[in-house]
Amino acid sequence: MALLEISNLTKRFGGLVANNAVGMEVNQGEIVGLIGPNGAGKTTLFNCISGFYSSDGGSVVFEGQDITRFSADRVCREGMARTFQIVKIFKDMTVLENVMVGAFCRTTNPERARQEALKTLELVGLVEKKDVPSGSLTIAEQKRLELTRALATQPRLLMLDETMAGLNPMETRQAVELLRKINAQGVTLIVVEHVMEAIMTISDRITVLDYGKKIAEDVPENIAQNEEVIKAYLGERYYARS
Ligand SMILES: Nc1ncnc2c1ncn2[C@@H]1O[C@H](COP(=O)(O)OP(=O)(O)OP(=O)(O)O)[C@@H](O)[C@H]1O
Ligand SMILES: [Mg+2]
């Protein structure tokens, strides 16, 4: 049984079909990349899976349980967490307090939440910033903090929406290492990213969306050579860069 099974997932905004009968399976322990041009529907798919949007059709099954109609906080309690493309940290709170918000998903005891938050901060290498107001962190650190807060909910599936956008090459390498470390601890990952070097090296498999539809799903080597993917996305990006 797959950890996550999405079938025929459809989301409309008025006349626009942002997710068009998308099907996708993610197995326990995998790192799955989710790519596609701007507006392809990647963030919308995350929103539908994680209960932030209610979908207009199709189903989401997590660990054998149909969670299609679950609220976002219920989905989180079931063991699925996500980050946001535009960071949504609580800027007036300290780093530790932000991570404790995530930890409170599993406990109502402040001391336990504190311990869990500290443990997670240690894992991601942010513990020395624990008392800093999070608004004063660099963008790279804010993205890492958001990831940490999601991780503190102790998810079995973590969905990351462009956590590497705007990072310099060294920060990107560190982010890739961190994701590998998190994955090695048994957390399955779905990673949305436009940074091709990162997504191609880290993913076991890649799913490609274009205009809300899945156009390909394969190992990175094959995705890089897939004519339809090159035409819809990769070609355009390489062209845009040169
Ligand atoms: N809340 C919303 N209301 C109306 N339209 C929306 C909403 N959210 C997304 N859309 C539209 O749905 C389509 C898919 O958007 P989405 O943000 O999912 O794309 P994306 O693949 O994440 O793109 P990007 O790579 O730029 O982040 C776009 O045409 C977008 O304008
Ligand atoms: Mg997006």
What descriptors fit this protein?
242 residues, Rossmann fold, six-stranded mixed sheet, four-stranded antiparallel sheet, 9 helices, binds magnesium ion
Strand content: 15-25%
List the ligand species.
adenosine-5'-triphosphate, magnesium ion
CATH arch. level architecture of the domain at 1-70 and 182-242? 3-Layer(aba) Sandwich
Task: Describe the global form.
Answer: globular
CATH level 3 topology of the domain at 1-70 and 182-242: Rossmann fold
What gyration radius follows from the Cα positions, in whole Å?
18 Å
Q: What do we call the CATH homologous superfamily of the domain at 1-70 and 182-242?
A: P-loop containing nucleotide triphosphate hydrolases
Mean pLDDT across all residues, rounded? 94
Task: Give a brief rundown of this model.
This protein is α/β, with parallel strands linked by helices and 242 residues long. The chain has helices spanning 42-49, 72-77, 95-103, 110-124, 139-151, 169-184, 196-202, 220-225, 227-241, and strands spanning 4-13, 16-26, 31-35, 57-62, 65-66, 80-82, 157-161, 188-192, 205-210, 213-218.
Structure description:
It contains nine helices and ten strands. It is of the alpha/beta class and 242 residues long. It has a domain at 1-70 and 182-242: Rossmann fold, CATH 3.40.50.300. A six-stranded mixed beta sheet has the order 6-7-8-3-9-10, sandwiched between helices. Strands 2-1-4-5 form a four-stranded antiparallel beta sheet, with helices on one face. The N and C termini lie far apart (43 Å). Residues 13, 16, 18, 36, 38-44, 85 line the site of adenosine-5'-triphosphate.
